[in-house]
Amino acid sequence: MIRSMTGFARSETTGEQGSLTWELRSVNHRYLEIGLRLPEPLRDLEGAVRERIQQRLGRGKLDASLRYAAPATANAELALDEDRAKAVIHACALLEGWMSNAARTQAIEVLAWPGVVREAERDLTAVREQALGLLDQALEQMIEARGREGAHLRDLLLARTEGITVLVERIRERRPQVVQGLREKLLARIAELKVDVDAGRLEQEIAIQAQRLDVAEELDRLDGHVKELAATLDRDEPIGRRLDFLMQEFNREANTLSSKSNDLDTTRAAVELKVLIEQMREQVQNLE
Questions:
Q1: Cα gap 49→131, rounded to integer Å
Q2: 3-class SS of residue 35
Q3: 3-class secondary structure, 235
Q4: Could you tell me if residue 60 is left (phi over 0), alpha (psi between -120 and 50 degrees) or otherwise beta?
Q5: pTM
Q6: Strand pairing of 32-37 and 60-69?
Q7: Which domains are present in the chain?
Q8: What's the pLDDT band for 25 if we cut at 50, 70, 90?
Q9: Cβ–Cβ contacts within 10 Å for residue 239, how many?
């Protein structure tokens, strides 16, 4: 399925293990670039998270952040570092003896000293598993969102190719008139110069100029590129880079067509072609 590289997803859950929230945002990028923010207790999930993302997404700059809040009961599970607490109390007592009219140290002040009280270590195995499962849900949402945007871009690209097909056919139908116009210009020039020209030599010159200005191959290649684009859009894989290359081929043929044109209508059609191709190129930049 064709997918864009832009999207947003959010998944969250709250339960006995606390609350977890994933937020994913992605924008266009040439490759897959992952920016990851994890809470300190779950920092060791980074490898598994990156692996999961790489398995599901092909391109894009992805910012992924996980927020975790432990359950309220967990905050009550505190451990007291008795040695450190005694050392703090002893130091306070020394200071009070050195100072006159010193306020007595309160127990709450000792508890607030860094390292005296610490949260009891918790087994976060279940939380880690829950976080990874929640990431899978967020990635699925992201893929669905990118798929919807990709379907919209597919319709836009196909509409542009229909316009290209119309212009190619218009130029192709115009070619006999272009050759006839070339003949008339040569005959008018000869009449101005008032010289006699061998009829066979005149036809040969017309043929040489017509061949030099012939764009049949360019038109055929443009038709081929249109078919290739439609076939590529049906591929069940990332197609952005392939379409990037195809846009270059479209543009090359349009430039050659424009350079060979000696007819105002053909030149105008070539300009319209370039506009459509540029619009397609911009849209292709969004595809994975």
A1: 9
A2: strand
A3: coil
A4: left
A5: 0.69
A6: parallel
A7: 7-73+128-146 (3.30.230), 78-119 (no CATH), 147-284 (no CATH)
A8: very high
A9: 22
